Amino acid sequence: MNGFGRLIAGVLGLAVVGGAAWMVWQALTGAERTPQAARRQARPAPQGRPAVAAAAPAQQVAWETAGEAESGSFLFDRWPRFACRHPWVVIAGAVTFVIVCGVLWGTMRGEFGTGSFTLPGTESQELSDLLDERFPQVAGDTTEIVFRAPAGITSPEVQDAIEALLEEAAELPQVLEVASPYEEPGRISPDGTIARATAQYEVGANEVDDHSIEELFGWRERVSRDDLQVELGGIVATAGEREPPGSSELVGLAAAVVILLIAFGSVTAAGLPIFTALLALIPAFFLIGVGAGFVNFASFTPQFAAMIGIGVGIDYALLVVTRFREALTTEETVTEAVVKAAGTAGHSVLFAGCSVVIALMGLWAMGIPLLSLTAMGPAIAVGLAALVALFVLPAILSLVGHRVNRLRVPGIRVAAVQSQSGMGYWLARRIQRAPWLWLVVATGALLVLAYPALDVRLGSSDAGSNPTSLSSRRSYDLLAEGFGAGYNGPIVIGAAFENEEAAEIFEALPASLAAEPNVAGVAPALINADRTAGRIVLIPGSSPQDEETGELVHHLRGSLPELTGHMGVEALVGGPTAIFIDIGERVQDRVPVFLGAVIGASFLLLMVVFRSLLVPVKAALMNVLAAGSAFGILVAIFQWGWGGSLIGLEGTGPIESFLPMMMFAVLFGLSMDYEVFLVSRVREEYLETGDNAEAVARGLAATSRVISAAAAIMVAVFLSFSLSDQRVVKEFGIGLAVAIFLDATVIRLILVPAAMQLMSDANWWLPGWLNKILPGLGLADANAREPLPGAAVGE
Length: 795
Prior knowledge:
By secondary structure, the protein is of the alpha+beta class. It has helices at 3-29, 35-38, 74-85, 87-108, 123-134, 156-170, 210-223, 234-240, 247-264, 267-291, 301-328, 334-361, 369-400, 423-433, 435-450, 471-482, 500-507, 509-513, 547-564, 576-610, 614-639, 659-689, 692-720, 727-759, 768-773, and strands at 142-148, 175-179, 194-201, 229-233, 458-459, 491-496, 519-522, 526-527, 533-540, 572-574, 655-656. It has three domains: 3-108 and 245-417 and 434-455 and 582-773, no CATH class; 137-241, Alpha-Beta Plaits (2-Layer Sandwich), CATH 3.30.70.1430; 491-574, Alpha-Beta Plaits, CATH 3.30.70. The strands form three sheets. Strands 6, 7, 8, 9 and 10 form a five-stranded antiparallel beta sheet that branches.
């Protein structure tokens, strides 16, 4: 990524984070309570509890009550009213935004590449910079062209055919030169049936354009035949051989439609979340495409954005539409129903969306470009999904009005307001009879699922994990068969020289390296024209993703100073394999810091929102349980191979290094969504009844259906991406699907009711000194920062 690209990325990041922060600030400080609200009389607390100032329902947030005058919060009162008065203006603005993004995409879109594998401060990056400077002729990336001829590579007919094909390959766009297997030793397998040629590109893989990739694979299709198999490997071919976005997304959307029809029982209501999700996703794709012209987005970035954007876009709209349908049964006008929906479910959307965006953009602080750039795509999609739900959906709802329940699905009848005698209420009451038993059993089950995570190995899977339908996988297998697994991931050793003596020492180094353990072969040293730097390619005896290869990299870094340091030569160990190892280790070192920051942020936010100490503690612990269980299942499937064949997994390997942080950032925001939606409803019922057990049961009854529907949509969308050919997309989709499923079932339906039953009135306990210093914001009492009925506030 060049300086201009970094500038653009920085500006985009600051804009996204700044916008999220502004939305939170507006939500928290924008309300001005009306005189009518201020003059509300204190009501007697039920069941003999101390009186407390009158409160609006807790889900109607402290700083804003739906139905108040327009002096309320901008996002949750004034804007919804404006959208209801001028719906077509709002919709026209949204359509204009999409068109502008489309025009920008049409004129400024860039190419997706391999992602940025730069890693400042590491030995592999230092070597990469050295080679770019001293070996400009090999600064670009390569494609391995692998041939298999049962009749023999050196037979005259086969040799003539291969040499003719290589002449064609040398003329392909952006190819600088092609190294023939007949001109360099070691390029023909011992049995004489497999050969490898190397096409050197003039640019890096991320700069190879789509036309060049199409020409490369089109050439392979034309020249490969029964008696001469031709396959493509290497970083350029692997980066280019990707399925186009669309198939997985369509499967996810189809599943979401079915779930929405069941949840709402109405085609109209079910169509609204789908429409708004697409309204956010389309400009997100456009903006990501534009961003690819400035920064090195990986080829899977659009799929990550689609996966998360579809899921959260439908999820956010589902919450708002559900609350709108419920409000229509109690409010006199459609406008008041829209305002109430915005002032209740809208807050869940705001906090969830901002939490995901801020957590994803917070990955920039980790100093890992691959991670931070990969996070930008989903952050854009989530941000736009939240904006559409908050700004555009109110206008659409005002136009739909009571027709939201039209076009009923035959055989499905769903009440707008959920009964307190339904499954959620019954389940809560069952759990409350033996909360300790449910708590221990559910926690134990999650810990068992999380156990494999203790064996997690972060890294990057190689082409050997790709499906056999891809040429990169077949190329990998041919190289491993003909030359050994290490040929798919060579290690590069380089050094800069200050004098001729140092160059001669480096030229003699391959003989010493060949004697090192797990070394299958060492190529002669390549010295640049002015003899100021050298490069050696070493072939490990193990594949790139094997642990033994990582051990060899560390061994070489420890032993090379002993071999050359006293002679004045500082040898560096790098290459693609070493870079991936360094990225994995950097992530592993920084994961605890990131997780601590995210958990700490969620704790503080929930403490301010709910004026409680134990609610955020509970939420933090359960977040860790859900994430740990999801990581455990990922390790069992992708690293141990359990059930891998069921999802088309071709082989085992490490978990992608950037996955834990990305997954936890997304899961953090989604779980905040469900936490705020459920616990705020429990608090509302607690204010109404003063009975903790009844409040928990009612809260679960009122929210379990919508949370289950939202989670089912998320799970369906995320699981649909397990159909992808890309291993990393499979990992991300399955990991998030498992985490959301566990969060919405085991945690929301079992652990939360059990824990809140055991904590009783202490759910809402907050030390007095802390209550005084915290901002007077949150889903708390609408008139003052007072303790809830029966909840002690300690000093």
